[in-house]
Write a structure and sequence with these properties.
elongated, 174 residues, 0% strand, mainly alpha
Length: 174
């Protein structure tokens, strides 16, 4: 099915595995999924409420992020296509080849995480649109919104950290 994005979710989760092992890094799973859920539950228990205007603003915020993230993804693809040529003797060439492999691996994970954020943004726009027009979901609107914002923010911070690491390597003098 052409609209099935489940593989993006699975690929995103795979970026949270321990390097070289087939198990998830538990602190990452807790941070990105459980912490927003705990905040969501807390907001639900204390009865937090968002104004209808908050959903209107949320639609705009996540729609803008969708477009911006697509542009970032295109920019990263141009880095991915860049040719990293080995220079010097065979030992230097092997070191440079390994660095290029690690860059491509990081670019692949970054692309996966950005794709996930785009899907999350589109999903969030849909959810906020439903909340904006609904009249009978008062108990769940705010906690779900808090979860979506928290999860998005934490995942965006991970993407920023990975992009920073990638670009810092580009700026290093050999």
């Amino acid at each position: 099915m052409k609209a099935n994005v489940f593989h993006i979710l699975l690929a995103h989760l795979a970026t949270m595995k321990v390097d070289g092992e087939n198990r998830y890094h538990r602190p990452d799973i807790l941070l990105f999924f459980a912490v927003p859920l705990l905040v969501c539950i807390f907001v639900w228990i204390v009865g937090g409420r968002l104004d209808k205007d908050a959903f209107n603003v949320s639609i705009s915020v996540f729609a803008i992020f969708s477009a911006l993230l697509l542009n970032v993804q295109i920019a990263l693809f141009s880095i991915y296509q860049r040719e990293w040529k080995a220079k010097g003797d065979s030992i230097s060439a092997e070191i440079q080849h390994e660095k290029a492999r690690l860059r491509r691996e990081l670019l692949g994970e970054l692309n996966t995480n950005i794709s996930y954020l785009i899907v999350l943004s589109v999903f969030s726009v849909t959810v906020f649109l439903i909340f904006f027009v609904s009249t009978d979901m008062d108990l769940i609107e705010t906690p779900i919104s808090v979860y979506l914002y928290g999860h998005f923010l934490l995942t965006l911070l991970m993407v920023i950290k990975r992009a920073h690491a990638l670009f810092q390597k580009e700026y290093q003098v050999e």
